[in-house]
Amino acid sequence: MPEGFAVGLAVVLLLILIFLRAPIFVALAVAGVVGLLGLGGFTAVELVPLALVAQLQEYALVAAPLYILLGEALAVSGLGRDLFGAAHRWFNRVPGGLGASAIGSSTLFGAMSGVSISSVAVIGRMAVPEMLDRGYKPAFASGSVAASGALAMLIPPSLMFILYSSVTGESVADLFAGGLLPGLLLAAMMIVYVVVRAKVAPENAPRDEERFTWSERLTAVGKISPALLLIALVLGSIYTGFATPTEAAAVGALAAFAVTGVIYHKLGWQNLRHIFVSTAQVTAAVLAIVGSAFVFTQMLVVARIPDQVTGFVVGLDVSPYVVMVGIMLILVVLGCLVDAASLLLVVTPILVPAITELGFDPLWFGVLLVVNLEIAVITPPVGLNLYTMKSVVPELDLGDVFRGVAPYIAIEGVLLALLIAFPEIVTFLPGLIG
């Protein structure tokens, strides 16, 4: 079968299966196997199991279940409530204070969990009902949480950076460092938007008349000190070279259990069962996607698609930055159709050789890719954060959630433009610790 026809058949089959709402790992695996059969018959498929095992044994992937375990342990602790309470005491006097508090809480929780839907579930369960009770518009309230939950993908420890490292071989520690400043910048941009929007259109977020003393604010900070210490322990051990990201994940998971059990007294049998079952489910889902995406990308490699894409991109008679903008636009469109992890695992082996040939830093591109994935998780019809928001606050109308995240998609676009114009925002910290 001609290579072009085999690849085209595989891509069409993938799109059909996605349209039929087949699980994404099934769609990728079936399309990949069909493509390989078309390219080389059963001989091409025979090597897939061995290659698949080798891919799943990638050392960087060991950190994934450990960070998921860390986040699940903290999710049952009640720490999310304390994070939101502390942020509320500091932001309550500014316009849209509860929205700003939700974003601040999501930023801190994202710096511990690394999984966006966990952040949306934990913070959304507390913040959105509180905002609705105080007269906030549903779109304004839900949008701030659904969008800021995606910060967990960019602020380390990020599961997406671990997956990117497993494909490209880039240092996980460098990727974590590269995502830190863009993540904090994005959080600041979101908070500024909430404050300005609430100031200009106060009907979205009625002013909070509640007063807090400095003593109450400092007490609230004291209550979240375990979270701050946990962040310092995990990230500090990585950036000082004391531990690898995988070792830091193991230590962080143990510390999360200590915080949940000793400080919050929430390690009863039911919670323990929930933590381990949920961790196993999320980890299995992630690894199933990793494996099936590898089968699909193997089909693309056999057909020499990465080489052809590289040759096409390098041969374009335009500025490399024009090419990069074009790639970003394509990724935004693809993010509306495919979930974040699958998109990363499929496009990375195709695009990284091309952008490297153009003279761009793969680490910098990795951060740009993750920002695109943040857009993907808040963009209908696939955006997982949107449906997570609806599931934890069922009284919300899904249309309000969609409308609420629209301005944040524009904010993510502005961040992408800044990172393309000023790559130093990404490369500064990795260069400092390197």
UniProtKB/TrEMBL annotation:
GO MF terms here are: transmembrane transporter activity
Give the UniProt subcellular location, in the record's own words: Cell inner membrane
Task: Provide the TRAP C4-dicarboxylate transport system permease DctM subunit domain boundaries.
Answer: 11-425
Residues spanning the membrane:
6-39, 59-80, 100-128, 140-163, 175-196, 217-242, 248-264, 276-301, 321-351, 363-388, 408-433
Is Electron transport one of the keywords UniProt gives this record? no
What InterPro entries does this protein's entry cite? DctM (IPR010656), TRAP_DctM (IPR004681)
Q: Name one GO cellular component term.
A: plasma membrane
Domain of life from the UniProt record: Bacteria
User: Its membrane topology, per UniProt?
Assistant: Multi-pass membrane protein
Principal place where this protein is found? membrane
Keyword annotations for this protein?
A: Cell inner membrane, Cell membrane, Membrane, Transmembrane, Transmembrane helix
Protein name per the record: TRAP transporter large permease
